[in-house]
Amino acid sequence: MAAYFLRRVLQIIPTIFGVSVLAFLFVHAIPGNPAIFLAGPNASTATIHALTVQFGLDKPLVVQYWYFLVNAVHGNFGNSLGDGQPVLKIIGYHFMPTVELAFFGLGLAIVIGVLAGIISAVKRNSAIDYTVMTLSMMGVSFPAFWLAMMLIAIFAVHFHMLPSGGDQGWKSFILPVISLGTSGAASIARFTRQSMVTTLTSDYVRTGRAKGVRESVLILKHAFKNALGPIITIIGIQFGFLLGGAVVVEVVYAWPGIGNLLITSVEMRNYPVIQTLLLILALEFILASLLVDVAYALVNPRVRYD
Amino acid sequence: MQIRRLLGGILGTAAMLLSTTVGVQAAAPTANITIAVSGDAVCLLPYNTNDNLSFGVESNIYQGLVGYNGQMQLVGELAKSWKVAPNASSITFYLNPAAKFSDGTPVTAQAVKQSFTWLLNPANHLVRTALYSVISKINVLNTETVQFVLSKPFGAILPTFAHPAGAVIEPKVLAKGVNYLCANPIGGTGPFVFKDWVQGDHITLVRNANFWNKAGAAKVASITYKPVADASARLAGLETGQFQAIYPVPNELVQSLKGQPGINVQIAPSNAAWYVALNTQVGPLKNVLVRQALNYAVDKSTFIKVVWGGYGQVLHSPIPPADTYAINAGNYPYNPTKAKQLLAKAGYPHGFTSVLWVGNSTESIYAATFIQQQLAQVGVNIKVEPMDNASLSSAIFSNNAKNTLRMNYTGWSASTGDADWGLRPLLATSSWPPALYNLAFFGNKTFDSYLTQGLNSGAPKVRAAAYAAAQKLAWQQAPWIFLGVSDNIWATRSNVKGIVVREDEVPIVYGAYVQ
Amino acid sequence: MTSPQPAAPQLERRQALVDVRLFLQRRSAVVGAVIMIVMLVLVALGPLIAPYSPSAPDYAHILAAPSLQHLMGTDEFGRDVFSRILWGARLTLAVGFIGAFASAILGTPVGLATAYFGGWLDDIVMRIVDIILSFPGILLAIGVIAILGPGLQNVIITIIVFGVPMFARIVRGSAISIRNLEYIEAAKAGGATNARILYQHMLRNLVGPITVQLTLQMAQAILVASSLGFLGFGAQPPTPEWGAMLAEGRMFLTIAPWVDIFPGVCIFLAVLGFNMVGDGLNDMLDPRLRR
């Protein structure tokens, strides 16, 4: 098992290298030139040239990539184009709001999703089960941004109950957390139910029931514990996804997070910021799936590693 | 127009007098103002700025030798008077002896020279160097007098100095470099000083306690800019009192704000002219009859009604009435029958097909869809191609644009407020992309010569005549579908006064006070 | 952009591939199927029953509330929202169908081959899949649209670019679980060619999970297309694609909510329909969940 994890960790290096190359090629393949864009329509060719030099875009692509790579290895990700701020400082500003949102959104999703999933599995084929499953099916079918727009229209614009955007105080968390938590809770509920149904119908739970073990102990201690593997997987995937910034929801709520930063950076072709973000997001994604595997192995030692 | 500007001036002065009184009463202002705007600033160094929001923030911190006030009137800032040489080959500024930087250092002619020398240094790679490249020499005549000698006659030199990029920055801070100053706008002379900027979240400025000009001193303790991209989010924040002012207010939302107690909606014309540039070098659009036909085919008042919610005016010249030397150059009334006749006469009785490039904001797509609908009625079928702004700008500024661009919906606001900057970048032969923004690839020698006449003179009469001839010719040649001049719409809490959005779409907040 | 899908179930060899009765026992699956059938009817008949042209403006009746003349009101150009929805059904569904099927057709062989052959091929291909999937989907989409230009066909290409690695990974996962089963070993021992084993023995046994993923992928495709439309990278005007309608109506949400509510509800229903059918298929094919 140790060898397996060592291999997994070592695989991160070529993957990240691949991501850095692909990210670089990809952002440069997108039409658009940050010097032209930032210089604006009333700029002369001289101005555009000045910016091109200022941004180091006059050098060949290979050289630009080499500089990026060498600097990145030394922990220097360059300066953002236009405002000239260190890239890591800018990403730092936007990181915490996204983490907070992911944390609360996922927290809500886990509490509601796991509870609903367990109840649904225990009361299989009851009215409660159908209701929960129907609601969860609806929850994963909403376009997230549409739900967000509707929530803003109702609670912020119409009733003035909650702020409609920005990160200012606990009230501003409510709508984005609901928007993100809805689909998360729905997915988690479905997986929890599926996993619980499997364990509840398994032999050892039946045996336990025959032996007269209390139902609540049976459900939580035996069935739920054994059902945890897939539930952790889905939670891990969700968390990785949310950390990448739920882009469209962040845009709708003007949330100063990673998702919004990604969109504005792409809009102005802010190469250093996009490249660094892509690297960080890829690392997050890889680490999240690694952690999921570790967690999975810990709760379910029978997993085979091949 | 002249009347409106005059009226604006009177009102502005009245407001200033009023606000001065209020300022005296409240010796140490405590109010804090938060204004929600549509996006974040990009760079707060005026010499490297290209967007109106950044200019808006800078207007609180920096001043030029001359500048535009909230009503777009040219006024002295650090200079108390100035003199343009009759042949427009030099300009001399006489500084206000009281003027001081925020750390108390006096603003001297030497400081002005050092500041502009830094701006003109190509090694600094500044966005705005090109705007002032006509300056060949800076002479310090005495501590309070500075003279700029130009490499060629340049009639628009005074408005160029009034441009928001023409700030005077304390020489000793310039050593900190472009990147530092972009994020930390210090060394200004304005009524506010920079406190902090958290990118994507807020910019806060506080009152400059050492401000040199008592009459213009800040009447609030601080100003905070909040970028809020979503319009209804800005609106909701204003309604709940989270924001004291918001800009812009989309026209669809004006009605829902107007009736509300405690909120004041303000609407004023901008100097942004909107049009569809028609590539005059390729295909059917080469023919002037076709271009005129397209102008008759689009119902401009309906455009303003449908697309802008009625907030704007029909354009009657390539430049908006707010620009200096603007005239009413003509009229293309809505007349689809005439449009069809002209098309038939030009050899296109069944119309033709073309492509319209447009930015991918909802508003732009909306406008393009309207143009598409209108032209379809005279048989001209348009494919609308929305592109994100960076893709669009690189398509426009590519060397091949002359062959690939057909039509482009766009707008232009001359930040110097002068006819030259409203016409030359958009219609002079020397301004074809990638040099500047002549998206119609309009190339007319007579037109070019009018522009040169206007630029070679410092005499307003000569300039007025030259630009009038230029506007009439451009109108008749119809290199654009002339659409309209949009209104600026902003809103404040009713007890917040002194905030205006200037014609050039720069929000001017430094005069804000709370009643 | 991607929400996780239920893990593909494992298959026993002799299990019936399609048992319609099991499907019909699931109420939600039936509801989903009904929604899909209604949508398909709209696709077929929509243009015939639409009372107005989807693109002709009527500036005198801008943003009119729903009424007998205009069942779903009119939009910012006075166009009939109901007619636009009817015309748009085929576009929205086409995005879902083409996007998902193309992803399946291209992604399935990759997943099968990597699972079956393993080794360096598996390592390299799966690293590439990891890299693509570690890109934020929306950025990938914006980039592809910016490179290829605007238009619905490029939206579909974008969906395929992300869908292929997704399919490859899921098919690979399911294929690995059957690769070492006795009958495959038996076929190998019997001298069957690789191609024959892959097709005859593996692909046929994976039809179930692939079908499930296909329906879920259709739902995803519709959501992705509408998100792209929302960000200004969707269909070109005046195309009445539902996502684009949603984006156009966004400015009027507070004063004319019908411009946004109806396309939103339609997208929701389409996605719901696909999800429900996928869910029903999933349960039908997973012996553990049978009731």
In short:
The complex is a heterotrimer of chains A (306), B (515) and C (291). Chain A is built from 13 helices and no strands.
Account of the protein in words:
The complex is a heterotrimer of chains A (306), B (515) and C (291). Chain A has 306 residues and is mainly α. Chain A folds into 2 domains: 2-73, no CATH class; 92-268, MetI-like fold. Chain A contains 13 helices and no strands. The model of chain A has no long low-confidence stretch (mean pLDDT 82). Among the domains of chain B are: 62-182, Alpha-Beta Complex (Dipeptide-binding Protein, domain 1), CATH 3.90.76.10; 269-487, Roll (Dipeptide-binding Protein, domain 3). Chain B has 17 helices and 21 strands. In chain B, strand 8 (192-198) and strand 9 form a beta hairpin. By secondary structure, chain B is an alpha+beta fold. By secondary structure, chain C is mainly alpha-helical. Chain C has a single domain, classed as MetI-like fold. Helix content of chain C is 69%, strand content 0%. Chain C is built from 11 helices and no strands.
List the helices and strands and how they pair.
The complex is a heterotrimer of chains A (306), B (515) and C (291).
Chain A: H1 2-29, H2 34-39, H3 45-54, H4 61-73, H5 87-122, H6 127-141, H7 144-158, H8 171-200, H9 203-210, H10 215-243, H11 247-252, H12 258-267, H13 271-299
Chain B: H1 2-25, E1 32-37, H2 52-58, E2 66-68, E3 74-76, E4 79-84, E5 90-95, H3 109-120, E6 135-142, E7 145-150, H4 157-162, H5 171-174, H6 178-183, E8 192-198, E9 202-207, E10 222-227, H7 231-240, E11 245-247, H8 254-258, E12 263-278, H9 288-297, H10 300-307, E13 312-314, H11 336-345, E14 353-359, H12 362-376, E15 381-387, H13 389-396, H14 401-404, E16 407-413, H15 419-427, H16 445-455, H17 460-477, E17 480-493, E18 496-497, E19 500-501, E20 507-508, E21 513-514
Chain C: H1 20-25, H2 27-49, H3 81-117, H4 119-134, H5 137-148, H6 152-179, H7 182-189, H8 194-203, H9 207-230, H10 242-249, H11 258-285
